[in-house]
Design goal:
By secondary structure, the protein is mainly alpha-helical. Strands 3-2-1-4-5 form a 5-stranded parallel beta sheet. Strand 4, helix 5 and strand 5 form a beta-alpha-beta unit. Bound molecules: flavin-adenine dinucleotide. The site of flavin-adenine dinucleotide has 28 residues, from helix 10, helix 12, helix 16 and helix 18.
Length: 475
C-alpha cells in the first residue's frame, strides 16, 4: 500500500507525489490533515479554508473514480500531523509515504519529523519538488549562487525552459481495489472542518471547472494581458491565484496550456510572455523564501528594514482595514478584498504602499491582515509582495519611490468605474472628481457619506522618506 499525503497540492493531475505513488501496481490511499491551530497561527483566511474544504470534497470524488480513497484527519499542529500520518501509514500497512515538498521553515521541520517517525516504523518517505516551474535551488547564477534580483532570475528560467522538463507528469491510472482499500472506503466520513469557513461557491472547485477556467484564459484572454492587466475595472488577469495557492492547479499545467494556445509565448512584450513572467515571479518568491529562513520568521530581507521606526497607529490601521481612509482607490480595493477574498495586483501594490508609506504602519501588520482575508493567501508571494512594497525586500521598490494614491487612482481607474463598483457612496460624484470627492463636495456644498482623508499624502511622504533614510543610515 502507498500513502499519499496531500497538503498544498490538492489535485489529481500533474501531481508528482501522486504520480510516483501510482507508478507501481500498489493500491494507493490519500490523506489530508486539517491543522486548525497551525492555520489560525498563520492567519489562514476563512475563504481559503472554504476553498480547501470544497476542493477536498471534489478531490475525494475524483480520486475515488480511480479507486483511491481520500482520508481526512485532524491534528492541532504540524508536529502532531507528522505523527498522525506516520501512525496512519503504519495502521494501514503502507510501505511508503509520498508527499510534495513544502519549503517554508515549519513545513520543512514537520517533514523531517514525519520522515524520522516513518523510519522508526520501517516505512519509506519520498518527497518531490512539485510546487513550482523550477524547484528552489535549481536556478543559479553563473557563480552557482541563488539569484536575489528578479530579471536575471527570469532570464535564467527562460533559458532553462529549453533543457529542463517542466511538462505535466503522468496522471494516475485506475487502481485495482482490494479488501483493505474497500474497508477504508467504507469508513470514510463526510469531511468536516473545525475551522471557520466562508462561502466560496463563486469559485469552481472541481478539476473540470478549474481546468476549463485556466484553458479559457490561455485561449481567449491572455493575449491582452500586457495591455490590460493594470486596470482593476477590467477582468484581464486570470484569477487563477486561489488554485495555484492551494495546488488545485500547477504552474506546469498553466505553462503547457499557454504554450499550446499562444505560439508567441516566447516573444518579448506579448501578453503570453508577460503572463509567464508573473508565474516566474511566483517561483522567484518561493526561491527567496526557501533560501532565506529569516523570511519564514518574517524578518525583512534587507537588514536595515528592521530599524524602520513605524508609527503603528491602531486607529489608522482600522481605517485601512475597513476601507475608510478617504482615499477612494485604497478604500475600494479594501472593500474588494473584504467582500471577495481577492484583490487585483495593482491594488495590492497601492494599498500596501499606502499602509507602509502613508500610514507608516509595519508591513507585517498588512501581511497578516491580507492572509486573514485572501482566498489566494500564499506565504512566499504575500511576504514578497509586502516586502517589495515596503522597500525592505529583495529587488524591492526603492524606498524613495512612493506611490501617490490619488494619481495611482487617476492612472489606473481613470473614470472611477472600479471605485464606484465598490463604494456606492461615491456613485454620484462626477468622473473628474472621483479621486478627490471631498474637493468636489466642499466646492459644491454636497453632502457625502464618505470619510475625509485620514492623512495628508505630501506630509506623510516626507515623514516616510525621513524614517526610511534614518533606518538606512543606522550604523
Ligand atoms: P495573474 O496576473 O493572472 O498572474 C498569474 C499567476 O502568476 C497568479 O495567479 C500568481 O500565481 C502568479 N503571480 C502574479 N503576480 C505575482 C506576483 N507579483 N508575485 C508572485 N506571484 C504572482 N499572490 C498570491 O498568489 N498570494 C498572495 O498571498 C499574494 N499576496 C500579495 C501581496 C502583495 C502586497 C502584493 C503586491 C502581491 C501579492 N500577490 C499574491 C501577487 C499578485 O498580486 C497575485 O498573485 C495576483 O494578483 C493574482 O491574480 P491573478 O491570478 O489574476 O494573477
Amino acid at each position: 500500500m502507498h500513502l499519499v499525503w496531500f497538503r498544498r497540492d490538492l489535485r489529481g493531475l500533474d501531481n508528482r507525489a501522486l504520480s510516483a505513488a501510482s507508478d507501481a501496481s500498489e493500491p494507493v490511499v490519500g490523506i489530508f490533515i486539517e491543522t486548525p491551530e497551525q492555520w489560525a497561527s498563520h492567519h489562514l483566511s476563512p475563504k481559503q479554508a472554504g476553498l480547501i474544504k470544497a476542493r477536498l470534497d471534489a478531490l475525494r470524488e475524483e480520486l475515488s473514480a480511480k479507486n483511491i480513497p481520500l482520508v481526512v484527519e485532524r491534528a492541532a499542529d504540524f508536529p502532531q500531523s507528522a505523527e498522525k500520518v506516520a501512525d496512519y501509514a503504519h495502521r494501514i500497512g503502507a510501505t511508503a509515504v509520498f508527499a510534495n515538498k513544502e519549503y517554508e521553515l515549519n513545513e520543512s521541520k514537520r517533514d523531517e519529523q514525519a520522515c524520522a517517525a516513518l523510519a522508526d516504523k520501517g516505512i519509506a518517505w519520498y518527497a518531490y519538488d512539485d510546487r513550482n516551474l523550477f524547484a528552489p535551488g535549481t536556478i543559479k547564477s553563473g557563480k552557482g549562487e541563488p539569484y536575489k534580483v528578479f530579471t536575471p532570475f527570469k532570464k535564467a528560467c527562460l533559458r532553462a525552459l529549453d533543457g529542463m522538463d517542466v511538462s505535466p507528469c503522468q496522471k494516475p491510472s485506475k487502481r485495482e481495489t482490494n479488501s483493505a482499500v474497500d474497508a477504508i472506503f467504507s469508513q470514510l466520513q463526510p469531511i468536516h472542518f473545525d475551522y471557520p469557513m466562508e462561502d466560496v461557491s463563486d469559485w469552481a472547485s472541481d478539476e473540470k471547472g478549474i481546468l476549463a477556467h485556466m484553458r479559457r484564459y490561455c485561449r481567449e484572454q491572455v493575449a491582452d494581458y500586457k495591455r490590460q492587466r493594470d486596470f482593476p475595472a477590467v477582468d484581464a488577469t486570470s484569477q487563477l491565484s486561489p488554485y495555484l495557492a492551494i495546488g488545485a492547479l500547477s504552474p506546469r499545467q498553466c505553462l503547457a496550456r499557454l504554450q499550446e494556445e499562444q505560439a508567441d509565448w516566447r516573444e518579448p512584450d506579448t501578453g503570453a510572455a508577460t503572463w509567464l513572467s508573473e508565474l516566474i515571479w511566483r517561483d522567484f518568491y518561493q526561491e527567496v523564501s526557501a533560501q532565506n529562513p529569516a523570511i519564514s520568521k518574517k524578518y525583512s530581507f534587507l537588514a536595515w528594514g528592521e530599524s524602520v521606526v513605524w508609527d503603528n497607529d491602531p486607529t489608522l490601521f482600522e481605517a485601512w482595514k475597513t476601507g475608510k481612509t478617504g482615499f477612494p482607490i485604497v478604500d475600494a480595493a479594501m472593500h474588494q478584498l473584504n467582500q471577495t477574498g481577492w484583490m487585483h495586483n495593482r491594488l495590492r501594490m497601492i494599498v500596501a504602499s499606502f499602509l507602509t508609506k502613508d500610514l507608516l504602519i509595519d508591513w507585517r501588520w498588512g501581511e497578516d491582515y491580507f492572509m486573514s482575508k485572501l482566498i489566494d493567501g500564499d506565504f512566499a508571494s504575500n511576504n514578497g509582495g509586502w516586502q517589495w512594497s515596503a522597500s525592505v525586500g529583495t529587488d524591492a521598490q526603492p524606498y524613495f519611490r512612493i506611490f501617490n494614491p490619488t494619481t495611482q487612482g487617476e492612472r489606473f481607474d481613470s473614470d472611477g468605474r472600479f471605485i464606484r463598483r465598490w463604494l456606492p457612496a461615491l456613485k454620484e460624484v462626477p468622473g473628474k472628481h472621483i479621486h478627490n470627492p471631498w474637493q468636489w463636495a466642499d466646492k459644491y456644498a454636497q453632502s457625502l457619506d464618505y470619510p475625509r482623508p485620514v492623512v495628508d499624502h505630501a506630509t506623510q511622504r516626507k515623514k516616510a522618506l525621513a524614517i526610511f533614510e534614518a533606518a538606512k543610515n543606522q550604523p
